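Quick start: read one record
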Amino acid sequence: MNTIPHMILNYTKLFSFCGLVLLCLGLSQCKPSKEICAEELPPPIEYNHETLINFVENRALGQILDLAKENKKMAFVEFSTEWCLPCQLMHENVYTNKVIANYYNQHFVSCMIDAEKGEGPDMAYLFQVKEFPTLLFLDEKGRVIDKHTGGIGASKFMLFAEEAQKKYEAQLAANAQ
């Protein structure tokens, strides 16, 4: 006999099963793998805006660290990929903020590394980058002062920089003694 509790139990089982199937399908596509054909991936979204942060381009990380040392600044490094939506949102909404750009341009030598091109895979391995974006502040020797993984809004991005700057200054003070 189909009573209300039995019907609810049957619907609960059905929804649980459907939810499990959807979860499995969703998790299998969280991160692209080498086995996925290029035809299956959507084309990357093109950046159609300019950032206000002065990112140094076409330089190896060693050259970025040399520039940071010459200018007595830390290096800010963003690891990203073409397909990374949080990276693209940061480019549109954070790196175009004038206050943030002024602070970063004054205090850091900034660069972007595509984790899938050029020296990017090696650098991503070296710094144990597993998520995108990964944001690093490095001293002149390439030591990580601070690290953040995942997208971040403008106000937290500024706080992240200020905290990294404090850690760096404390490190400099400790080394001077």
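The first strand starts at residue 55 and ends at 56.
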